[in-house]
Amino acid sequence: MTTSRVQRPAQDGVRDGTDVRLERENAQLRHAVESHATVDQAIGVLIALCQIPHAAGFEVLREVSQHTNVKLHTVAQSVIDWALGRPLPPVDDELEAAVQRHRNRQGTRSQAEAPGS
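Predicted structure:
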């Protein structure tokens, strides 16, 4: 069985609402997959360059997004661009602050878990 991406018009030559809805959903899903990949790559950058755990990497991106009112995938793309040698846009101060907050939290947990604490 062969499938085609060519729209098959209804018998009257007009596409029905289902086709339009499915195309819209398909575009939204493609965008979501692309955004997710960008966020994952940015988390990898933060893990490698800032030496923070994976979960903290996502939290850093989320906090920067919320504190700067910039969409998460846009912040993530900025972090990737920064890793590639491009300047970090105005989120740089918030990124540094968020990384430091998570490092401090991690240090507090490590001290609390240390024997004899």
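Summary: The chain has four helices and no strands.
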